[in-house]
């Protein structure tokens, strides 16, 4: 029920967005979806969700074990939805809307009742190596109504705005030195236009946001001590916008680990949840100890619970054991 009403809102928004996009092409706006909160606590509305990244391997590399624990934690927290930070299907995304990997790596894996909620997904670099439009296709939403993957979009949930950003097209290497990989850049070229519109839409969404919490989700790292480390292009182009607009959390995957970097130069918490399946790469770079609150080189996932005044972030391993907790607080509005 909840899912189908959200989809209705989505289709309606997509229609409006495409209309306004056609008539005023110079003002690129990100698609906006509304999520209706249904739970309350002492501080008003309450929202909880799980974050998993870098997962689709037909259950292998502990993907199924992570899924099982997500189901248990999801039930305990009575989650509203799940966020996927991308690299949804390995190694090379989906071959098309009829690729059995969709069922074998998604529908048949995340089977717990608590995970039968909306999934909001972004694309990772591995997803761009397949038929990228398949993952964005409404046909997949018919096969499994939980699925919703878009390039860049906003989910507004009262006290929180989530801004999902398509980070793969920012990375120069995929264009200049793609190695033996083929990337599906349909919808992205010409790249300069795509990035310019994306950045404008992204910045304007953050600038206009009145929400108490601002959470940005992308696939690539901005700050990370892991295998891939810092993504220079995002550090240069996205990070200043995050700082200027008081973003609370930047949530990503890409590095196959669980990680929390608490920035000392801004209020931003950098959270990596890329432990959905294959992990244990064993290469960790040095990072300022006063910022690095967690680095776990194995599988797992993250939960976030938030209300008007508090956000609680928890990381779990493959057994569901808590690896790390972090609490953020906000002042109550003085005029309330
Ligand atoms: C699965 O998880 C266990 C516990 O963390 C770990 O020892 C094992 O190496 C993992 N298996 C794979 C294939 O990563
Ligand atoms: C590309 O593929 C060829 C043939 O399979 C292989 O010999 C070569 O090492 C590959 N190059 C890279 C950069 O992976």
Structure description:
- The protein has 336 residues and is α/β, with parallel strands linked by helices.
- It has one domain (25-335): Metallo-dependent phosphatases (Purple Acid Phosphatase, chain A, domain 2, 4-Layer Sandwich).
- Helices cover 26% and strands 26% of the residues.
- The chain is built from 9 helices and 16 strands.
- An 8-stranded mixed sheet has the order 1-7-8-9-10-12-11-13.
- Strand 2 and strand 3 form a beta hairpin.
- The protein is globular and about 50 Å long.
- The chain starts with a helix and ends in a 7-residue tail after the last strand.
- It binds 2-acetamido-2-deoxy-beta-D-glucopyranose (2 copies).
- The site of one 2-acetamido-2-deoxy-beta-D-glucopyranose has 7 residues, from loops.
List the helices and strands and how they pair.
Blueprint: H1 2-23, E1 31-34, E2 39-41, E3 44-52, H2 63-77, E4 81-84, H3 101-107, E5 118-121, H4 132-136, H5 138-143, E6 147-149, E7 153-157, E8 160-165, H6 173-176, H7 191-208, E9 213-218, H8 232-237, H9 239-244, E10 249-252, E11 258-262, E12 269-273, E13 292-296, E14 300-306, E15 310-317, E16 322-329
Parallel strand pairs: 1-7, 3-4, 4-5, 5-6, 8-9, 9-10, 10-12
Antiparallel strand pairs: 2-3, 3-14, 7-8, 11-12, 11-13, 14-15, 15-16
The structure holds 2-acetamido-2-deoxy-beta-D-glucopyranose (NAG) (2 copies).
